[in-house]
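Our preliminary data section would be incomplete without showing what the modeling component actually yields. Below, a chain of 255 amino acids is followed by its predicted structure, encoded as tokens that our downstream tools consume directly.
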Amino acid sequence: MKPAKEPFDGRAIAEMEQHLVVPEWTVKQKIALTCRILAGEGHESALAGQITARAELGTFWALRFGLGFDEATASSLLRVDDDLRRVEGEGMPNPSNRFHLWIYRARPDVNCIIHTHPPHVSALSMLGEELIVSHMDTSMFYEDCAFLPEWPGVPIGDEEGEIISRALGDKRAVLLAHHGQLVACSTVEEAAVMAVFFERAARLQLMARAVAPIRPVRPELAREAHDYRLKSRPVGATFHYFARRVLRNEPGCLD
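Predicted structure:
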């Protein structure tokens, strides 16, 4: 008889707590790093796409409008209120951040939202297909990715915010038809990792489906992998790895 996984998992988690220590970056620094990470992963679509995170007293951090992800620094972030009025920083808020506010109101568990238009997610969104999870690397999306089948238009009003928020529901991710992807997570690190792997999942789906029908995975194994991939220490270590790649060439993004 082979031993159960639980003892090995428990030991691994304990060792992660001891050895996977990450720097004490501020939320603004994590956002700037996330922008640079996503730029490097091909999520750039000119000025389209946003990242926001909760700040204090009902306010939110957001990248100043007019900057691309590859230009983001901690000092280029604005703090805005619940109506996108600037309360700290220089420049104008991105008007497309308005639909984020609807998600924050509906989901007190969400502390960071990322929305981008990367190429493979965008291609998948044009087909009217939901994201299929059939690989361990993308198992974090198993039963945790919603689908909005109809495009409500440019998301700069309250109607689009209500529609997208309702479509997301209680999940961490949503594929937006004819639009892109959105992740809504408890930490910046988790959101960044999920955004990166959302695009990779879409790319794998398109590649695999071009060859043959995609084979499903066993639900109980997919649920186990989902929970394992989203443990906080491995997520933090993955974010730190992505951040190290950025900082080797762009240390100035931390200001």
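Residues 188-209 form the longest helix (22 residues). The helical segments are 6-19, 27-40, 98-106, 119-127, 158-168, 188-209, 219-229, 232-249. Preliminary results of this kind motivate Aim 1 of the renewal.
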